[in-house]
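Q: I'm building a small set of examples for a reading group on sequence design. Run inverse folding on the following structure and report the sequence directly after it, with nothing in between.
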């Protein structure tokens, strides 16, 4: 019972977090919901809830299409991943979140 209550509270908190960020880019489909949000000049967070099979792939690319970072996440739950882009040089980048045939992307400008 305690586990169920804890799980429900965490789920509610993360769902509220999904809706608390303005200016993000979101996609929702059966078994998958994702959002990309910029918090500060060089911090980006990716939120997703994956209930369907398959991994979620997060990729950060520069304007030349070169992959600066890539990660595959296989959790069957709500996940919030934060990425500090301060180590990257100033410029434009694209953050992509892909699951099956769904793709969401967000442009990020580092100054």
């Amino acid at each position: 019972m305690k586990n169920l209550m804890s799980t429900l509270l965490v789920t509610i908190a993360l769902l509220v977090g999904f809706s608390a960020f303005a200016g993000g880019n979101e996609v929702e489909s059966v078994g998958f919901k994702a959002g990309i949000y910029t918090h500060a000049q060089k911090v980006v967070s990716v939120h997703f809830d994956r209930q369907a099979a398959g991994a979620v792939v997060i990729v950060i690319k520069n304007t030349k299409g070169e992959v600066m970072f890539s990660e595959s996440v296989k959790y069957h739950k709500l996940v919030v991943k934060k990425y500090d882009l301060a180590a990257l040089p100033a410029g434009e980048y694209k953050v992509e979140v892909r699951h099956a045939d769904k793709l969401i992307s967000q442009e990020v400008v580092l100054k």
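The radius of gyration is 15 Å.
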